[in-house]
Amino acid sequence: MDGELGDVFPVEDDLFEDSFSMDSTYNFFGHEFTINQSFNASLGVAASVWDAAIHLCNFFEKTSLELRTGFVSILAARLGACVTITDLPLAIPQAVRNIEVNAPSAGWPSEAPSVLPLSWGQDQENFSSDWDLVLGTDIIYLPETFPLLLDTLVHLCKNGAVVYLSSKMRREHSTEDFYDKWLPQKIKVELVQREPENNINIYRASKYQ
Fold first, then answer.
1. Residues β-bridged to residue 21
2. Using an 8 Å Cβ cutoff, are 36 and 173 in contact?
3. Is the pLDDT of residue 14 over 70?
4. pLDDT at 60
5. For residue 153, what are the CA distances in angstroms to 24, 48, 189?
6. 10 Å Cβ neighbour count for 21?
7. What three-state secondary structure class fits 95?
8. What percent of the chain has pLDDT over 70?
9. Are strands 162-168 and 200-207 parallel, antiparallel or unpaired?
10. C-alpha to C-alpha distance for 164 and 64, rounded to whole angstroms
11. Is the pLDDT assigned to residue 12 strictly greater than 50?
């Protein structure tokens, strides 16, 4: 990436032409979360809590959780995980606000989530490879970023981290190509859950042994 927003977010003529902000409330694991979404042209798709994030939370609520991404990571931290949230620099303030709003009254069980900027394919080497889990929700939507994301995931999971990716399977964004053609080049990947009604898949990936 060259840092230009036009290369990061899909361009639509009237995308968030009118700026507005809204709070949404969600409940998982007996915890209530209030997530602010600030819709404007500069944040673009980074403003939203996408359905893929909700489905990944549902998936872990039914299985287990030891997590490291916005909304999903806040849930993980509320349950005691040590979490680092990454996003483009422009979206960091919104993530920080949502962490502050959802801080438990008795304090975080482990520690408050940290928030750091990460540009795929550029500065992943600034991050450790010693994670337990790496999570991503609806981050597969620009084919030109596929090799950058792949390089980033390879670095983050090279010491054994398991990657969970939840995606709306949008044909116009070549989402299926990422999982079928790009990811298997360097990482073992398997489909662990499919939600046909909402066209959302959850994949688990890890380095080849």
1. 38
2. no
3. no
4. 66
5. 30, 23, 12
6. 11
7. helix
8. 79
9. antiparallel
10. 12
11. no
Q: In a 10 Å sphere around its CB, with 0-12 CB exposed, 13-18 middle and 19+ buried, how is residue 165 labelled?
A: buried
Q: Is the dihedral of CA 23, 113, 126, 51 positive or negative?
A: negative
Question: 27 vs 52, 55, 61, 133, CA distance in Å?
Answer: 16, 13, 11, 22
User: In this structure, what token pair is assigned to residue 69?
Assistant: 């991404």
pLDDT at 6 over 60: no
C-alpha 146/C-alpha 177 separation (Å) is 9
Task: State pLDDT tens for residues 182-193.
Answer: 999 999 999 999
Output the six-digit token pair for 44.
């673009």
| Length of the chain, in residues | 209
pLDDT at 10 over 70: no
Which amino acid is it at 14? D
DSSP letter for each residue of 20-53: EEEEEEEEETTEEEEEEEEE-TTTGGGG---HHH
Specify whether the CB–CB gap between 200 and 55 falls below 8 A. yes
Q: In whole angstroms, what is the distance from residue 110 CA to residue 79 CA?
A: 8
The C-alpha atoms of residue 116 and residue 124 are separated, in whole angstroms, by: 11
Query: What does pTM read for this prediction?
Result: 0.75
48 in Cβ contact with 15 (< 8 Å): no
Both tokens assigned to 33 = 């979360």
